[in-house]
Amino acid sequence: MTSLLTVSPSPHVRSGMTTQKIMLLVVLALVPAIVAATVVFGPRALFLVVFCAVISMFTEMVCQKLMQKETTYTDGSAMLTGVLLALNLPATLPLWEAAIGCVFAIAVVKQLFGGLGCNFANPAITGRVFLLLSFGGDMTTWVKPFFYRGRSFFEMFAATGNLPDGVTGATPLASGDAGLLDLFLGNVGGSLGETSVLALLIGGVFLLVLGLISWHTPVAYLGGLAVLELFYTLATGGEMTDVLYALLSGGVILGAFFMATDYVTTPMTGAGKLIFGLGCAVLTFVIREFANMPEGCSFSILLMNLLTPYIDKLTMTHPFGAKPAVKKEAK
Amino acid sequence: MNYGKEFTKGILKENPTLVGLLGMCPTLAVTTAAFNGIGMGLSTMFVLICSNIVISLLRKVIPEQVKLPCYIVIIASFVTVIQFLVHGFVPALYTSLGAFLELITVNCIILGRAEMFASKNNVLASALDGAGMGLGFTLALFLMGSVREILGSGTWFGLTIPGMVGHTMSLFVMPAGGFLVLGFVIAVVCALSKKNPPKKIGCASCPNAAACHAKCEEADA
User: What is its EC number (chain B) (predicted)?
Assistant: First the structure.
């Protein structure tokens, strides 16, 4: 009874959802993908994920100590960045290169711009692009699924750089010869997070059900890409399964559910999210089909990140009944 | 007049590239290797000293209305001289600098020093100013070129660095790497010269100024 009589300033109703909870739930949503990657690429994949998460958190702690800020490395955002970055890497990437990517993502992309909430680009994606442009060879060496079978534990971990012939292969996006079911279940080469579509969808639906992400971005991104690929297939006379192949291969599923839905670097309103997703779809389509790179997912999300403030401005909502603000005359 | 100060100010405190942010085009374009950076820096330094001396000598002759064309003619003459010299004696540098050697003519540092300093000061001060500014420019380019060459190509002045073979980051020889290195070098120089960032940051140069309405109005008021 006394608590009912207590007068306190607003907000009076709290959701109980904290940054830490959201971040941990997103990491939880990524667990199926991590498990799938571990099954497909062996224990080194799991080790890479943990390694990236630890390095990211450590970098965040060091940066915040150096800048004499409140240390928030336990809020899970750095861990999420590390996990997402690891899912964007091939399983055989040397650890020091992965560490450079994590340090760049956290120190340069996130902390130098003011920490969580102030970064203009998605740290994990920028880290991946940084690594891709720096170590083009190692970043595009894809081992075949289950390459680790019949190898000793030490061999699995040492499998970086000089891999024997027959172990590596092109990603299904570049070769275009994987079966659709293999793509869906993850029996293909590629980055850790671009293998099993099923595992990613489980995580994505989990986030949608919990209401942590809205449907706008994934639907606009994947739908837009499907429509564009459909027109392209019709124009070039390909088979209808090519559309499905385009959606299931590469990193679009990971991108659409986990990267393009980042709170900080994507638009706030539903309309803005639709524009963001469609923009990603168009850029991904153009890069895939007309540029000399096999995958354009990370570049497209990064480019749309830069446009986010403008999309937010375009789609700003007005209070009900309020008159639109009169533009100030130029001085 | 303190002649020593006129010379030293350009090296760190008023460094034309890292503090004044002038001459960005050659700074980003030719610094893929330390040798190119030094070559570009020294060429610019030569032109800067010579043009400063001549403009200072002619500062009472040049009419106010046509000073810019006059400056450009003087600068372009010295650029032609250095271009022939580099072509004749260091053909390798001539090839790698390409059009940027000729573009020294329109380098804002040189025109800036002519307008800001040489047209108002005596010959000795102008020569020292040109030498200091040129040295600052050369050092900045050398620093950036070294970082980019070591990280991006694993070499320094063309010499292979042991341990870097196969571990290079090709991003640093790309244009994006140039911007990245420039940002870090500027940060280091600001820290060294104990320059604090401005308390109030204006919206004039902010790319997102259009999108963040509230803050800009606040800053204007």
Answer: 7.-.-.-
Q: Which domains does chain A have, with CATH numbers?
A: 19-314 (1.10.3430)
Name the least confident of A159-163, A276-280, B66-70, B124-128: A159-163
Please state, in angstroms and rounded to a whole number, the distance separating the CA atoms of residues B97 and A215. 52
Between these two residues, B193 and A130, which has the higher pLDDT value?
A: A130
Report yes or no for ipTM above 0.85. no
R_g (Cα) of chain B, nearest Å: 19
B210–A130 C-beta distance less than 8 A? no
Q: Residue B150: its chain A contacts at CB < 8 A?
A: none
Residue A168: what pLDDT?
64
**Domain locations in chain B as residue ranges:** 3-192
**Is A313 in contact with B211 (Cβ distance < 8 A)?**
yes
What Å distances lie between residue B79 and A154, A169, A202, A235, B132, CA to CA?
A: 61, 53, 65, 54, 19
> pTM here?
0.85
Closest Cα in chain A to B180: A108
Estimate to the nearest angstrom the gap between the alpha carbon of A45 and the chain centroid.
Answer: 17
